[in-house]
């Protein structure tokens, strides 16, 4: 029944070989991999304005020069990641690039940051998606958190179904968003040109505003740079592209960069032009859309379409986390830095454990931060720009190794990217400590855990390896101990089996002395049933039979070893015809198994007698 | 560590033989067994007044004649249970008396009612205890429910420690309550006689009050009869008395009945005389105590002592449930109507499972009814008077069987008790349906469950019994299948063992075809390590290795059977040096065990290789 239910939720199991056809063309790849970056325009510009608003609406014009710097950073990152694609066609990603060029610890820092970051991707995107929905439907305003959690769960199930289905399914919302944003910005440009969109900025560009400090500008810049999260996604996913993989991936990356630049610039500009001020219940981008599209019936319809495509692309953005996290976890698990279970693929070929862990992490984050985007953004930014910086530095080293002295020319985009990314990290570190401190607790804990896990696996592999010149050992026989409770068919079967494998069979009964008559009864029944086998009875003053049984068995095992015999303990067990009936019977067998598991050289065997009704 | 913690909570394990010295003398027995009945005066009279108050304070004088009828019922019950003590010296109780004289189903009705009822005893007593505490300390008023739950848990741990310790421990609060109530009522009588207690009854006895109907009187009577809950406790516990058991038990019962009658009559009378009207935050008995003792410093001290001794005796009353429930569950489990686990005694010789189940049930009831006594009382009353009625009818049958025609004289108290108890049941059934309906859902479900459990045990015993002329079977050999993953020390050990027990050893490897190179590597490693053993490789298109392994194993088992061989499957397993490290390794072994458990004639053995570090 569980199996059926699982099939309905995530689909029928797929063969391992079914994997090859799951490759993405450019259109699908853009849908799958650019949503994280593109959807950032739904919250990135708003974050800039929110910081500036602490001075007042007149300070908003600063968003224009700040946006220009962010666009420069975007350009450097796109150039830089184009190089990563060519340098690491098997799927680069900050973890791999950092590990290979900078060493284990920087690699683990990148990996750990990204794992946390993908959880934040899911949390931020689903929370913003919920905001987009409630901006259009004010009645839902109090259910933001619940909507975000449901979105995260829906995405989890979709991803458990497998990658390709998701890709084709996701193309619709992404392209709806791209097209409708183009239309929206087009309408805006047309209205400005035709003079029908009044200029309402609270202050002109260049006006000097009292209270604006460099710190404020840097704060606004660092949070606004959260619009650039997700540009690395394509470079991690090169193996999923159709051939020629690298070429297609690079083209997709440039395409995505151009669209993002246009959207980001457009939103910041119109927010400034229209004098939009952040509100509690309605996002900046929703206010902008409402203003540009007007309140006519067509305008209203288009506004709803825009809001829902925004919500949908945010959901797809969350999905980027779902495709990236499990792959990263797989890579780290393959290098023995994460538990082995992250390498296992589920019925639908997806890395189920990674997907489920991600969803759980994101939901925990949503609950801790009550689904409030602005509290999640600083953490998100530090989580992104830390591995960005490390990956760019890694690329510089990479070029130096490969090209020698000539490396400097190839490295320019990387050096630029590294510097700006590092600047963002430092700004966050210095000016937003109050928001990002949890990152500096979680990350060291993660890295410590990675190292411990690695140590464990290496240690186990070492101990398990067959040594040169290991020898098979020939035993002379087998001592078999059968535990007897009452004398039943189960014991009959178990003793028959014991005699088939053992040279020396011991039937063992533990009496709790509470009922001497009962003990004598069992002894005489046993003698009648098995006249040629002696029943060894041990007595205990307590009710627990486990401890005395274990004591006797270890003694017997020691004796067996002296004679070069192996020791087998048989626990006779009956299996009720209905599984739930097990609860009516005591679990002594199970407890004995647990107790004996810690004893070396004792083999535990269960003899199961199946009841028919 | 768990063991240490458990020892601190419930004490060191006791030997089974330590049981005999746990017998009770009369003083201890009165403490242990009368608290339920005596403590009822803390809520019983209030319940009568609460019902009458629906008409108005003037109706309160009716509590006097109602109390008279309840005292008559008490007298009949005490007489009747004295007879039960002599007829069933091994511990009567409604379950036993009903089963023996009326048959299985009436017995199960009694047993089921009482099991529920003991949970209600705990719930009502702890809730009333919490009320007594908050009547004295108004600051705690909002924590009634929490206080009640904590009381139930404290009692649970005390009972897990064992019976005797509880008895001596409980004597102090019970006797403090008895003495302080005597003092309280004595003060009241003295003040009336000395004329210093003004008569403030809202209406004289006999005043005709508009709106008082027979229905109201019957309702008040039926809830007031909850004061009689617990009078059966002594008759269930005869075996725990010191010799002469029956004599001592009967004496204790009469003693208890007299004290209860005096206390109940006193509280009803003073509540009437002083014109006490129920309040939300202060119990009737607390108002009475406050009024009688006055507001001087000595009076206030005495008031506090009285309230806390009330709270304590209510806690002890809850304890009656803890001593009765496990014994009843044990008796029903011995008759195979409840799961076997209720017959098992814990480290401290108490029936741990019964004690824990009772606490859990009581806490669930407290949570459902939010700890409100007046909502629990009607259920409590129906749960008590149903088995009362059945037990009394059973006694009539008992006398008829033993004495023939003469039975009528012996039966008079039983017939009287049966009739009044039955009247209470009918009144509750007709006039308090809205409150008691859950009882008529829970009881049939319980009885159905008892019958199913019984059927299951009888059925299993039947199937397990060795038939006359059963024969031992001699096998010709043993096929051993060893599951091989990677080729490691674990496999070496497992194969050595397999060869010691098996005539025919199969090494089986399931390949998931995801990595052909890996498969070839394993094959050649295996050949190098075990040149004289062939590695059977089966391939699967899916990632799950369980299903193909099980298919192969069942086939091998069929072949083995044809040759009169047994089949053993060995699952090589390594045990990490630290238990938590298990989570880093996949649980294929465990899953295979579960899958193979349903296959007959396959013996599962675990070969454990212990890692040293």
From TrEMBL, chains A, B:
<feature type="transmembrane region" description="Helical">
    <location>
        <begin position="199"/>
        <end position="218"/>
    </location>
</feature>
<dbReference type="GO" id="GO:0016020">
    <property type="term" value="C:membrane"/>
</dbReference>
<dbReference type="InterPro" id="IPR053153">
    <property type="entry name" value="APC_K+_Transporter"/>
</dbReference>
<feature type="transmembrane region" description="Helical">
    <location>
        <begin position="172"/>
        <end position="193"/>
    </location>
</feature>
<feature type="transmembrane region" description="Helical">
    <location>
        <begin position="48"/>
        <end position="81"/>
    </location>
</feature>
<feature type="transmembrane region" description="Helical">
    <location>
        <begin position="377"/>
        <end position="399"/>
    </location>
</feature>
<feature type="transmembrane region" description="Helical">
    <location>
        <begin position="436"/>
        <end position="453"/>
    </location>
</feature>
<keyword id="KW-0812">Transmembrane</keyword>
<feature type="transmembrane region" description="Helical">
    <location>
        <begin position="351"/>
        <end position="371"/>
    </location>
</feature>
<feature type="transmembrane region" description="Helical">
    <location>
        <begin position="102"/>
        <end position="120"/>
    </location>
</feature>
<feature type="transmembrane region" description="Helical">
    <location>
        <begin position="140"/>
        <end position="160"/>
    </location>
</feature>
<dbReference type="Pfam" id="PF13520">
    <property type="entry name" value="AA_permease_2"/>
</dbReference>
<feature type="transmembrane region" description="Helical">
    <location>
        <begin position="250"/>
        <end position="273"/>
    </location>
</feature>
<protein>
    <submittedName>
        <fullName>Amino acid permease</fullName>
    </submittedName>
</protein>
<dbReference type="InterPro" id="IPR002293">
    <property type="entry name" value="AA/rel_permease1"/>
</dbReference>
<keyword id="KW-0472">Membrane</keyword>
<dbReference type="GO" id="GO:0022857">
    <property type="term" value="F:transmembrane transporter activity"/>
</dbReference>
<keyword id="KW-1133">Transmembrane helix</keyword>
<feature type="transmembrane region" description="Helical">
    <location>
        <begin position="301"/>
        <end position="330"/>
    </location>
</feature>
<feature type="transmembrane region" description="Helical">
    <location>
        <begin position="411"/>
        <end position="430"/>
    </location>
</feature>
